[in-house]
């Protein structure tokens, strides 16, 4: 467990590199009250960010959707990250940029609020840190594109995920699957979901799920190694019938699922092994862009 308020090292905070301990916001911060910040998570392998350009583009788009100002160019963003990595990381880690509003309103009216940016960076491993995890099924529906701009990685879209993760852990699971309001499979609380059945890989479309950068990397890997990947709308019965199930995410990488509720899944699947091998190779090359796969 890390107490992030006690992180050592430097953070980028509104155009300055300052000590982490000094990066404070007021209790009456607009984004804290109205959940309208946007953020990213970028993995660092051997001191180099993976898919930095794609994370930059998603952050830029998320800020545009949430009407926050984000003025950094891709080059400036990259330079800041390189400086933070140099200050804070010995080998592997994580970069967390967040854009949020100042404290100039205590209502949804943002006329007088300005946009702030913080970019933190710390040493880190993988999210689950075990060979396989268990999933429950959340009772809370995931928001979809028709009612919320879920293509933005914004704090507001995580409310049902946070409650769902608390409940999943109370029930003894590591995480849970979230369904949309029509009971189609969406994703888990912070990862995209894939499954393998008879040598075909399946994953839900992004109507109610974040289009994860790791998800996009895996889809590109599958195309490259000529394994069929079907993207669409699926029900729980489709996953429960699968041979193997795995999650994707920057922090989780490619993560096997051993159990969903009471159903067990194989941890030995040669297609999963091919995906993992290729993903590990991509990590070792520290690709800047998904398009280089
Ligand atoms: N879905 C959600 C809700 C997430 O929070 C994340 C983590 N960013 C993902 C999927 C995976 O996205 P990525 O591969 O870009 O990390």
Give the integer mean of the pLDDT values.
Answer: 96
Instruction: List low-pLDDT spans.
Output: none
Strand-residue proportion: 25-35%
Give the beta-strand count. 16
- Spatial shape: globular
Question: Can you tell me the CATH topology of the largest domain?
Answer: D-amino Acid Aminotransferase, Chain A, domain 2
Count of runs of 4 or more consecutive helical residues = 7
The SSE string, one letter per element, is EEHEEEHHEEEHEEEEHEHEEEH
- CATH superfamily annotation of the largest domain: D-amino Acid Aminotransferase, subunit A, domain 2
Q: Largest sheet, if any?
A: 9 strands, mixed
Separation of termini? 34 Å
CATH architecture of the largest domain: Alpha-Beta Barrel
* Category by helix and strand content: alpha+beta
Bound heterogens, unique = 4'-deoxy-4'-aminopyridoxal-5'-phosphate
Counting structural domains, the number is 2
* Helix percentage: 25-40%
Global Rg = 19 Å
CATH class value of the largest domain: Alpha Beta
What does this structure look like?
- The longest helix has 16 residues, at 270-285.
- This protein starts with 9 loop residues before the first strand and ends in an 8-residue tail after the last helix.
- Helices cover 27% and strands 27% of the residues.
- With 293 residues, the chain is of the alpha+beta class.
- The chain has 2 domains: 4-122, Aminotransferase class 4, branched-chain amino acid transferase, N-terminal domain (D-amino Acid Aminotransferase, Chain A, domain 1, 2-Layer Sandwich), CATH 3.30.470.10; 132-292, D-amino Acid Aminotransferase, subunit A, domain 2 (D-amino Acid Aminotransferase, Chain A, domain 2).
- It binds 4'-deoxy-4'-aminopyridoxal-5'-phosphate.
- 4'-deoxy-4'-aminopyridoxal-5'-phosphate is lined by residues 41, 187, 190-192, 210, 212-215, 248-250.
- 4'-deoxy-4'-aminopyridoxal-5'-phosphate (PMP) binds next to helix 5 and strand 14.
């Amino acid at each position: 467990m890390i107490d992030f308020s006690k992180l050592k090292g430097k953070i980028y905070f509104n155009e300055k590199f300052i000590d982490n301990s000094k990066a404070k916001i007021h209790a009456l911060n607009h984004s804290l009250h109205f959940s309208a910040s946007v953020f990213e998570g970028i993995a660092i392998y051997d001191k180099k960010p993976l898919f930095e350009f794609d994370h930059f583009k998603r952050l830029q788009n998320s800020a545009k959707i949430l009407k926050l100002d984000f003025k950094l160019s891709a080059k400036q963003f990259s330079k800041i990250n390189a400086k933070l990595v140099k200050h804070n990381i010995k080998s592997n880690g994580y970069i967390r940029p967040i854009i949020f509003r100042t404290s100039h309103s205590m209502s949804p009216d943002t006329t007088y609020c300005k946009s702030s940016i913080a970019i933190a960076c710390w040493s880190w491993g993988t999210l689950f840190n075990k060979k396989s995890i268990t999933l429950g099924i959340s009772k809370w529906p995931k928001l979809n594109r028709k009612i919320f701009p879920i293509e933005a990685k914004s704090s507001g879209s995580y409310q049902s995920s946070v409650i769902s993760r608390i409940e999943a852990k109370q029930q003894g699971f590591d995480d849970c699957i979230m369904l949309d309001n029509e009971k189609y499979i969406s994703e888990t609380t912070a990862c995209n979901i894939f499954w393998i059945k008879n040598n075909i890989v399946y994953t839900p479309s992004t109507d109610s799920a974040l289009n994860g950068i790791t998800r996009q990397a895996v889809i590109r890997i599958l195309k490259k190694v000529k394994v069929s990947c079907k993207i669409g709308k699926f029900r729980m019965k489709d996953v429960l019938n699968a041979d193997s199930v795995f999650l994707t995410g920057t922090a989780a990488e490619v993560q096997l699922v051993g159990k969903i509720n009471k159903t067990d899944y194989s941890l030995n699947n040669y297609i999963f092994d091919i995906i993992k091998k290729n993903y590990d190779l991509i990590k070792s090359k520290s690709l800047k862009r998904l398009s280089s796969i």
